[in-house]
Design brief:
The protein contains nine helices and eight strands. By secondary structure, the chain is an alpha+beta fold. The strands form two sheets. It has a six-stranded antiparallel β-sheet with strand order 5-4-3-8-7-6, sandwiched between helices. Pfam families: HTH_IclR, IclR_C.
Amino acid sequence: MRTSGAGEGSAVQSVDRAITILEIVAARGELGITEIAEELDVHKSTASRLVSALQHRNLLEQLGERGKYALSYGVVRLAAATTARLDVARLGQPICQQLAESLGETVNIAVTDGEAGITVAQEYGTAAITSQNWVGRRSPLHATGAGKVLLAWMPEEDRRPVLRRRLTRYTDETIVETAVLRTELARVLDEGHARSFEELEVGMHAVAVPVFSADGTVGSALSATGPAYRLPRRRARAIVADLRDGAAELSAKLGYRGE
């Protein structure tokens, strides 16, 4: 078993220095290796290794041959992802509230977080028994309604790693065979919504629909969750239309102009 030591301490120090470089370059606009080394109070070779790593991850770019370094498009990509999540949560919260009140069930908005989903907005239903608070929590993509929506509309190159790894079983209803999951995802695309009937938690049902971003991709999913006795399969299918209306409203707010 590995134990913590100098190696881990050095790694943490390198991460801290790399972040400091990004902060310095952001504040100054552009810097050379010598200037970065002086700011960090390290040898030029150390600064050069850190800058090379950041450049490799498209977080820094060199301005001309042997020139200074500036922030690259990778930083913009990371910032855009964060902004998109904040926009979805801010714009989607009133829609979640309206749906939760009309349906009586808990309504959530989830986005992808690596190979999982993460809830960014939630409103409890009016019924006495509601689901737990999932805001900020990660959930498996293959065992939830929202997760299946995100998987179904995910580019194949992003979906492939999820389907290659072993799928965790949470209940007897969880889909753990890749071929079966692919068939389910094809159905989700065909029907335009996903269902999870006791696949993550015994006694809980969920139904979800896609939310489209301005560029036409599916960046989030809107779902309703409730106990199986109150949200049986027939009712879960019946409320898909309400969820689609809410998702269409949110998609429009996010700039989507498609059908």
